[in-house]
Amino acid sequence: LVGFGIYLAIVEYFRMKQRTMYDSSEFWDKRYSRMMAAGIPPQEWYGLDDRILAHIKDMASSENMIHDLGCGQSCLCERLRVAGFKNLSACDFSEVLIKARIAEEKKRSSIAGAKAVRIKYIQCDLRAVPPMPKDSVDLVVDKATFDSIVYRRTSAAKEDAQGVWRQVERMLKTDGQFLSISLNNDDIWKKYVSPGDNFVPVTKTEKIVQGDSRTARNVYVRKFKLKKKS
Prior knowledge:
Layout: H1 2-21, H2 25-38, H3 50-59, E1 65-69, H4 76-82, E2 87-92, H5 95-112, E3 119-123, E4 137-143, H6 145-149, H7 155-171, E5 172-182, H8 186-192, E6 199-201, E7 206-210, E8 217-226
Parallel strand pairs: 1-2, 1-4, 2-3, 4-5
Antiparallel strand pairs: 5-8, 6-8, 7-8
């Protein structure tokens, strides 16, 4: 029993260490460098099924500026480009990742031509720097970024989340919208992530069940509108 208790303590230690690493750009740089070097296919956190894309199509027109908040290796913007959206941007914490995505976009543009829709990729620390100019974005989409920030479940993580909200508010236009795709239920969301009073819920939290009976998981969809600038 003592040995098993030690084992559990070690497991929990490394879980907590992993949670702490999520707020480090060095952690993500190393992670993506290893994945790219090993030829590991890009990961799409929380999937990207038609139900998620339908929410975006319902919230934005093809001419609206859409920003993927903390894009990672997601193909969200690529899927939106195929669907006819013309103004797309994305940001991430990792310089390694963003350099790779910019290179991929330049390669694609050289083949597709000057008239092709280009995705703008930006590297920044979302807790302190808005990735897009003030009042320039119609819809911000978060798919797992807030989840990775508050995975630590600490007061510091909550402060980091509020820092991100401030940057979201700066780059959104008045009446701009925010779409969250999250694994966190309402209790966790309200405790660690909830935005300020300027963000008004558009609908109640929607639960999407992904996977089959063996791999089923709940994904929560939340929509907000920015009513006034502070």
